[in-house]
Design brief:
This protein is α/β, with parallel strands linked by helices. Helix content is 49%, strand content 13%. Helix 10 links the parallel strand 5 and strand 6. Helix 4 packs across helix 5, helix 6 packs parallel to helix 7 and helix 10 runs parallel beside helix 11.
Length: 304
Amino acid sequence: MSLWSRFQKGLERTRERLSGQIGGLLGRRGPVDPATLGRLEEALLEADVGPDTTDWLLDRARALLGREPELDLRSALERSVVELLGSPVRFEPGSERPWVALLCGVNGVGKTTLAGKLAAHFSRAGQGALLVAADTFRAAASKQLEIWAERAEVEIVRSRGDGGASQADPAAVVHDGLTAALARKTAVVLVDTAGRLHTKRNLMAELEKMSRVCARLVPGAPHHTLLVLDATLGQNGIQQAREFQAALPITSLALTKLDGTARGGAVLAIVHQLKVPISVVGLGEGIDDWQPFDAEAFAKGLFG
């Protein structure tokens, strides 16, 4: 299935919500009359785009329609979405060895599953990967990541315990993982951190400590900090993300569960408000049900 097809399928519920209200308007050309503008605004707000982002999109679309009379409303909206989402950021290794990525986010967003999927991708591409189970709080996290490591055929480093989570210091697990990666000359290290409420300052400080440990062992690490957000939460993810931004420099966003929400418009609000690009989207439960983010495919999936 092509990337566009995956987005089309993943955004089906959001697209149905939009098309049910404005589907008959999208083929129109020329200036947007007040009645059409009102219907567009209402539909975008119901898709959780948010008032500020809705205003921005409609202003851009109207400007495009004024400059290019041959455009229809669908094309103008799609181009406005692509402009808002900006240049793509890839979640992929640079020249550093090891290249270290830190995955963070609140509880239940799918960090561990995504870490396993990404590890499988790098393994298939011939890049040796190591998973670090730095979630020492959730009892099943270490075992879950071990299962993913087996599926992805990559190595894993976890706390020195009895085979389960042992309340070890997560920073110590990160230290062990990077030490192992350096010794084995591993290309890619993916650090799965515990889900933490963005309001818990002590847990955010712990995340900062893990980042410092990375930097001490590998210059410049973490080379990519991936904040994982649950797309079904809509704009509630914005405040979560702001707190993580205050603790760490976030490189890019991963949006999971995009296939299960009618609030996919929140993707636009999140990028618009946070000024952080999206690199990865989750579109299902399978090992291959994720994609590098593509703004054009997303825009077409939203309005197509």
